[in-house]
Amino acid sequence: MSVRPGAAAYARMQSIDERAWVAPTAQVFGRVALGAGSSLWHNAVARAECQEIRIGRCTNVQDFVMIHVGFDHPTRIGDFCSVAHHATVHGCTLEDAVLVGVGAVIMDGAVVGAGSIVAGGAVVPEGRIIPPGSVVAGVPAKPIAARDHARANRMNAWLYHRNAQAYRRGEHRAWDGPEFEAWRRAQQALVDADRDLALLDSL
């Protein structure tokens, strides 16, 4: 785990796996758990004054994302999720392999089913239950398609896992060049055959 100097004060009640990567400008407060192989990117904030935030394995929380809790609702984010830039995830549940688009908002008590996509700019209202394998868009968010995107969403999560490993080493071009293209083809083959799921335990 990469943390900034003086971060010990932020560690109370936290459970951040040593195999996760936290950007130097990300901020974590309160009871927050971050799973193996996950990443919290630049200027993202996870804040839990009450309830808790639990983020699974190989999940990425991208730049400027806000994760907060409700008074009555914890925030739970599963494995292989991607929460894109400037999204707000507030007191809700994202099941495994969910992609939340840029600037989307998901509110207290909502549940987004596994393998779903929340389109950029969408607002999922309080208490809304999104079935697995849905694509929702709009304000308020409504279903626009039904298709399981779990494999595509897992591949996106693996891309961010690779990127986080590179950033940990100080490398900022992890998605460029012939070595990356070979890795991407091989990883896509694993995902297409669902063999990537077994890799979670070895992160």
Structure description:
The protein has helices spanning 150-168, 178-192; strands spanning 15-16, 21-22, 27-34, 39-40, 45-55, 60-61, 66-68, 75-77, 82-83, 88-90, 93-94, 99-100, 105-106, 111-112, 117-118, 123-124, 129-130, 134-137, 142-146. The protein is α/β, with parallel strands linked by helices. The chain has a single domain, classed as 3 Solenoid (UDP N-Acetylglucosamine Acyltransferase, domain 1), CATH 2.160.10. Mean pLDDT is 94; it is low at 1-12.
Brief descriptors of the model:
17% helix; 19 strands; single chain; 203 residues; disordered N terminus; eight-stranded mixed β-sheet; eleven-stranded parallel β-sheet; UDP N-Acetylglucosamine Acyltransferase, domain 1; alpha/beta
Order of helices and strands: EEEEEEEEEEEEEEEEEEEHH
Helix % is: 10-25%
Terminal Cα span: 13 Å
Poorly predicted parts? 1-12
What is the residue-mean pLDDT, rounded to a whole number?
Answer: 94
> Any idea what the shape is?
globular
Strand tally is 19
Structural class: alpha/beta
Oligomer: single chain
Largest sheet: 11 strands, parallel
Give the C-level CATH assignment.
Mainly Beta
Summarize the helices and strands and which ones pair or pack.
Layout: E1 15-16, E2 21-22, E3 27-34, E4 39-40, E5 45-55, E6 60-61, E7 66-68, E8 75-77, E9 82-83, E10 88-90, E11 93-94, E12 99-100, E13 105-106, E14 111-112, E15 117-118, E16 123-124, E17 129-130, E18 134-137, E19 142-146, H1 150-168, H2 178-192
Helix pairs in contact: 1-2
